[in-house]
Amino acid sequence: MMKNSLSLQTISRIAVFIILLFSVYFLFAGHNNPGGGFIGGLMAASALVLLYLSFGTKKINKVIRINFPYLIATGLLIAMATGVISVIFGYPFLTQFYEYFHFPLLGKAGLATALLFDAGVFLVVIGVTILVILTIAEDDD
Amino acid sequence: MSILHIAILAPFIFAIFIPLFYKYLPRIHTGWFVLVLPTLLFIYLIRMLPTISKGEVITKQFEWVPSLGINFNVYIDGLGLLFALLITGIGALVVLYSIYYLGKKGEALHNFYVYLLMFMGAMLGVVLSGNLMVLYVFWELTSLASALLIGYWYHRKKSRDGALKSMLVTVMGGFAMLAGFSFLYVITGTFNIQEIIANADVVAASSLFIPAMLLILLGAFTKSAQFPFHIWLPDAMEAPTPVSAYLHSATMVKAGIYLVARMSPVFAGAAEWFWLVAGLGIFTLLWGSFNAVRQTDLKSILAYSTISQLGMIMSLLGLGSASAYYGYEDYYVIATYAAIFHLINHSTFKGSLFMVVGIIDHETGTRDIRKLGGLITLMPITFTLSIIGAFSMAGIYPFNGFLSKEMFFTGLLHSLDITQFNMQSLAFLFPVIGWIASVFTFIYSMIIVFKTFTGKYQPEKLDKKPHEAPIGMLVPPIILAALVVVFGFFPGLLEHTIIDPAVHAIHPAALAAGEHFGIHIYPWHGWDAPELWMTIGVIALGVIMYLTLTKWQKIYEFLRLHKKDPINYIYDYLLDGVIRFAKKVTSMQMTGLLRDYLAFMFIFVIAIVLYSVIRYDVFSIDTGNMEGIPFYFWIIAFVFAAATITVPFIQYRVAAIIAVGIVGYLVALFFVIFRAPDLALTQLLVETVTTTLFLLCFYHLPELRKERSKPKFKLTNLIIAIGVGATVTITALSTLVARGHRPFEAISEYHLENSYKLAGGDNVVNVILVDFRGFDTFLEILVLGIASLGLYSLIKFRVKGRDSI
């Protein structure tokens, strides 16, 4: 795609990590602040798109060996698992739980199964976005 | 389920085994196996005759769909048994005849006998069921079987056309009848015929009385080939001759007669019933006999003759219904009596005549009377049979047709004394029309006999060398002709055994149990009886007209009747018209253009929304809050509108994509202003990703189809677009006002209060997405996954080498 764009590649190397970090922040902050799985997923996907744009798909495909259809499936399974677990314990489908714990380093923190659900959303959104863009971009016919 | 039920269903059960006989016993004609069944059924049914003669009835119950009141209950009285005997008796004879008529080679015998048995069972079901819905089911089965039998030689176009026509006409009537039955159910709350008859006064008082009567009569008239629905019967003559003899003379066409007779206790006494049944019947009699004379094909003559004879029976039933007014005096009941008697007679002589015509066709290769002639010495037995049948049909002593013809005249003359139904001024029409029609009946009966068997023998016009038929083919018409003679000499055999109970079923109030009608069938009425002179007149004028046939036959050309029945023109016009109209409508709305379909949908949306807005007067605008809007908001709204309006005017795709992108980012800005941070973030990201996708897709668009022209400006599109925009705006504004006085609390209060308490999250939007309404989110990511996998498989797994999209 791109021939040799040194400045773009250099900036991308740094920016991608910042964006990825930001996306993970969105994922975790979602429950109490703006954000969530969907936004985080889109953000992470745009970081990957940036990588593809600056280094070309061939190079990045060597580095990121993710099968995106599997990623989508994994995300869906995680999201569904949170629902099924509540069924196993006798609650209606997709009942979410949360509890506060004292962690050794972090101190008191809330843990919710909703986060797991959000993680599923996160994975699905990344998978969908990248799969769509890569499929169209790599189509030579 | 009793033996009676099994007897009725036996033909259906037996039909299953026919293909096995045909396949595994090919050396024996399949018909021999079939013959067993109607014979056994006939014996079984005739054993009930003594019971029925005593005026008793036999009923058997079987629950089918009790929750809907649809039960297969068998009800056998005189009327039902009479028909059942005709069906099985003539059925047996027809099967025997068909064994010799249809060869073992080259005929799909298994089809033929399966259809025939299906018809037989259906017909038995029609006449023996005491439930209207069950009757209807069997009724449609007879239509179906009839169409299958008419189209038996399906490689001939004429057969297929005839089958289609009979199907369309009879099923049309059948549906009407179903509606009529439903009306009766609505009125009385039952499908049981006897219960409906018991509630006849309730039916008569109902406002649905006339619609129910008309619809049921429509069913009866189409089935019984009454004017103007008779057109299917001549075309049904494309069927094999045993079928014509069985279905189209003796049994199925009498199903309508049966229905009229069966429904008489409910409807008799109404002027509409009298005029429709009697009036249409007598006109059908005239029309059928008048048209029969011009035919050159023997089966066509018989078809029109059947139409006319059915009209005669129908008119007699109508005249008999007048007796409901006069306390069922024998004086008026005689018409009904004549109807039943002639029904039996017609089945005997018409069945034998059809078989005779089949023999002639089979042995000479033609049915055209212009080619036939002088067969008297070659086929003496056939000639004798045809003379018996045709003379009986013409009403000549000593055959049974003479007796019923005289009774017909008696009934007609008695109609002069009917003072109801405006009959004083019109009563003379019945004897006059009946008498004229009898003259024509005489003429065509003579044509059948003398044009075929006397005159010049023309062997050069015949395909085969004619000779007498095999004995097996002659036995059934001999039996029927023997019955013609026996009933002619000993009509008393029928009087108390079967006609009395049958008439009693039609006029249940006329007789107490065990009594008999004071009517007797006798051939000699005395010199002063007008019936005798009417018959003599018919014969005298008939002979003169037959001898001068060539002189006055030009009248048909003058009346333009010589080619085909004028009703056929109407039928063809209607059928073509329906097809043409349907094609026109379809080609008008099904253009194949997506934009047209979209336009239809949008127009519909506009129409329905505007209609409800105007109908319920809900449009309202509240301008009170307009002052509170800050100035910067106006600027954003203006830019938003400007960007939107530019999109349709942009010539280049890239520019359009960018303009759409601007609109998207402005939406994100709106979200920011209305304090929806999650939405704003999502909108920004989604907008970016979709713009990327747009650009990628644009890159892939093929060179050739690059459409750089301005989108065609279409006024209609503009109007539709403005209309949709206006309706949506109106709805939105009205909803906004309506929100001011809504009766319910918004659920968002609950979410705001409980999001931290119950779900442990401060971000209410996210809590709703993953917790309160997690199910929606789950399905949404599923949608995303399916969409991407769909796209993936569309692109990756498309078949290479074909024309790409």
Question: Would you mind describing this structure in some detail?
Answer:
Chain B: Residues 715-798 form the MrpA C-terminal/MbhE domain. Chain A has one domain (6-137). Chain A is built from 5 helices and 2 strands. Chain A has helices at residues 6-29, 37-55, 57-63, 68-88, 113-138; strands at residues 98-103, 107-112. The mean pLDDT of chain A is 85. Chain B is mostly helical. Among the domains of chain B are: 268-559, no CATH class; 594-752, Four Helix Bundle (Hemerythrin (Met), subunit A), CATH 1.20.120; 753-805. Chain B has 34 helices and 4 strands. In chain B, helix 15 packs antiparallel against helix 16 (330-364) and helix 16 runs antiparallel to helix 21. The longest helix of chain B is centred in the middle third of the chain and has 35 residues, at 330-364. Chain B starts with a helix and ends in a 9-residue tail after the last helix.
Morphology of chain B? elongated
* Count of β-strands of chain A: 2
Instruction: Profile the largest sheet of chain B.
Output: 2 strands, antiparallel
Q: What is the number of helices of chain B?
A: 34
Number of helices of chain A: 5
Describe the strand arrangement of the main beta sheet of chain B, using strand numbers.
1-4
Mean pLDDT of chain A, rounded to whole units?
85
Number of separate domains of chain A:
1
DSSP E strands of chain B, number: 4
**Largest chain-chain contact?**
A-B, 48 and 40 residues
- What's the shape of chain A? flat
